[in-house]
Amino acid sequence: ERIVARHVQEKFGHEFVFVTDYPISVRPFYHMRHADNPTLTRSFDLLWKGLEVTTGAQREHRHDILLQQALEKGLTQQGIQFYLDFFQYGIPPHGGFGFGLTRMLMTLLNVKNVREVTYLYRGPTRLTP
Questions:
Q1: Would you tell me how many other CB atoms lie within 10 Å of the CB of residue 48?
Q2: Which burial class, exposed, middle or buried, applies to 73 when counting CB atoms under 10 A from its CB (0-12, 13-18, 19+)?
Q3: 10 Å Cβ neighbour count for 54?
Q4: Would you give per-residue pLDDT tens digits along the chain (129 residues)?
Q5: Comparing C-alpha atoms, which of 39, 16, 14 is closest to residue 26?
Q6: For the chain, counts of helices (H) and of strands (E)
Q7: For the chain, what percentages of helix, strand and coil (3-state, to nearest 5) are there?
Q8: Strands 94-99 and 43-48, sheet pairing
Q9: For FRET with 14, which of 53, 54, 64, 94 sits at 20 to 30 Å CA-CA?
């Protein structure tokens, strides 16, 4: 991530870069795959100054394909039936992402440790507030 960000900064003068089209081996079963290349997902990471601050993808919304992709990943239908039930009667195409607020704050404030921008840090030596 740092190398990619450094390259983009040097070549294009930007602090932000989207990395897209991750292989299926490194993404969850519910990420939609490209129709023309099913080994790649329709997913992304947003890097800012060499740190991933958000990740997301277009989600698979077709029940049969979702089940097939889950089985390919080694999951059992029984283990994810609660999730599959939402898709049984149809879901519109959709996407989702995870936003790392603490990572964004850490980068924005030029802080070196995420614990310094986390409201209630939890780690090996502090598991309860």
A1: 19
A2: middle
A3: 17
A4: 999 999 999 999 999 999 999 999 999 999 999 999 999 999 999 999 999 999 999 999 999 999 999 999 999 999 999 999 999 998 999 999 998 888 899 999 999 988 888 877 777 777 665
A5: 39
A6: 4, 4
A7: 35, 25, 40
A8: unpaired
A9: 94
C-alpha 34 chain-centroid distance: 16
CA distance 22 to 82: 27
Unique residue bearing structure tokens 């919304």: 61
Residue 121 to residue 34: CA distance in whole angstroms:
38
Backbone angles phi, psi at 49, to 5 degrees: 55, 40
> How far is it, in rounded angstroms, from Cα 83 to Cα 60?
12
The answer to whether the Cα torsion of 41, 81, 83, 65 is positive or negative is positive
The two three-digit tokens of residue 114, written as one number:
């995420």
3-state secondary structure of 91: coil
User: Would you mind telling me the total number of residues written for the chain in this entry?
Assistant: 129
Task: For CA atoms 118, 119, 122, 123, give the dihedral sign.
Answer: positive
